[in-house]
Amino acid sequence: MTERLSPDATGLDRAAALLRAGDLVAFPTETVYGLGGDARSDIAVARIFEAKGRPRFNPLIVHVPDIAAARALAHFDDRAERVASAFWPGPLTLVLPLRAEAGLSALVTAELTSVAIRVPAHPVAQGLLRAFGGPVAAPSANPSGRVSPTRADHVMEGLSGRIAAVVDGGASAVGLESTILGLVGAAQLLRPGGIPAEVLEECLGVPLPTGADPARPVAPGQLASHYAPGAAVRLGVTTPTPGAVWIGFGRDCAGAALNLSETADLVEAAANLFHALREADRIANDLIEVAPIPDHGLGRAINDRLRRAAAPR
Ligand code: TXA
Ligand code: MG
H helices of 31-103, where? Predict the structure, then answer.
C-alpha cells in the first residue's frame, strides 16, 4: 500500500523516516513530481529503477536543499557559482565534476565522474530535503516511458503499490522537467526545460551548444567504452572457465568469486552490480564471466549494463 502523506510537519517527518529506511517517497517539485530515494544508498537507488521499470541505469538527478549541500557533492567553478546563485532554488539542474568524497551510490551517477544536481524551489520539496538531511536521488515519478506526473494522483496512477509513499503537494507549477546545463568543460545544454536556454546564455555570456546526453548517446557504444572493465567479459555462463573470475547470481553458483545476490533478488543484484564489476576487474587476470540474470524487471537494466561491459572493444 502506498501511503498518501500530507505536506505538513507530520507528513514530512514520516516521509523522511521512510527515506532513511531506504524506502521510496514521491514528492512534489515545481517542475514535476520526483520519485525520491536516499542517493547514498545502493539499495534505495536500485529500488528507484525497479519501481520505474527502467530498462537502463541512466544517471539520476540528486536533489539538495541549498548550494552549500551541493558544494559538498561537486566542484563548483565560477560559472557554476554564477548560475547557481542566479537560478537556485529553481528548475535548473547542473552537471558538475563529482567530488571523490561525495559518498553517492555508484548507481546514481552510473559511474560517471560527473553528477547532476538540483536545488528545487517547491516548499514541500525543500521541507522534505531538510527533514531528511541528505541528498535525494529523484527521476520523474512515473513508470518508464510514460508521461511525467504533475499531481499526486498521477503518481498514484502509475506507481501505487510500488513505492512507500507520495507527499501530496498539489499541482506542479512548471509542469516540465528542469533544464540541464552541463558545466564539465565547455558549457552545454543537455536538456531543455523549465529555464529557457537564452536566459542561461545571457547569465553565462556564451552561446550554449546542445550537448550529447550520456543517457542517449549519439553513437552506439559511446557509453559502453566508459563503462567497460579492463578484462574481457562473457555473459550467461553456468560453467565457468578455469582461471576466470565468475560473478554468480542465485544459489547454484558454488565457486563464484562474487555473487550479485545469493537469494536471486534483482534489487540486491542491481545494488551490487557496479561494485562487483569493479572488484572482479581488480582480481581478474583477463576474463570475467557472469552467471545468467533473468531478463525481467530490474534484470533488464542489469543485462543492458552487462551487455555494454561485454561489448567488443
Ligand atoms: O525536473 C526534473 O529535473 C525532475 C524533477 C523530479 O527534479 N527530474 C528528472 O530526472 O527529470 P530524470 O532522472 O528523469 O532526468 C535525469 C536526466 C537524464 O536525462 C540524465 O541523462 C541526466 O539527467 N543526467 C544525470 N546525470 C548526468 C550526468 N552526470 N551527465 C549528464 N547528464 C546527466
Ligand atoms: Mg523522466
Answer: 42-52, 67-71, 78-87
The highest-level CATH class for domain 3-204 is: alpha beta
Pocket test for ligand 1, best of 29, 52, 60, 189 (most atoms within 8 A of CB): 60
Report which protein residue has its CA nearest ligand 1's atom 1: 177
Pocket lining: 177 vs ligand 1, CB cutoff 6 Å: yes
Distance CA 80, CA 92 (A): 11
Q: Is the CB of 90 under 6 A from ligand 1?
A: no
Q: Which CATH number fits domain 232-310: 3.40.50.11030, 3.40.50.2000, 3.20.20.220, 3.30.565.10?
A: 3.40.50.11030
Is 118 close to ligand 1, i.e. is its CB under 6 Å away? yes
- The per-residue pLDDT for range 154-202, each reduced to its tens digit, is 999 999 999 999 999 999 988 889 999 999 999 999 998 889 899 999 9
Collapse the DSSP code of 118 into the 3-class scheme (helix H, G, I; strand E, B; otherwise coil) and give the result.
Answer: strand
**What ranges do the domains of the chain cover?**
3-204, 232-310
Instruction: Answer yes or no: are the C-beta atoms of 257 and 280 closer than 8 Å.
Output: yes
- Kindly report, residue by residue over 211-265, the tens digit of the pLDDT: 765 554 443 334 444 467 889 999 999 999 999 999 999 999 999 999 999 999 9
pTM of structure: 0.90
> Residue 91 C-alpha to ligand 1 middle, in angstroms?
12
181 vs 95: CA distance, rounded Å: 6
52 C-beta closer than 6 A to ligand 1 = no
| Ligand 1 mean position, distance from CA 195 (Å) | 14
**Nearest residue to 71 (alpha-carbon basis) of 13, 28, 119:** 119
Question: 139, 191 in Cβ contact below 8 A?
Answer: no
Give the distance (Å) from ligand 2 centre to CA of residue 148: 6
Amino acid at 232: A
By alpha-carbon position, which residue is closest to atom 16 of ligand 1? 60
Q: Which ligand is nearest to the CA of 211?
A: 1
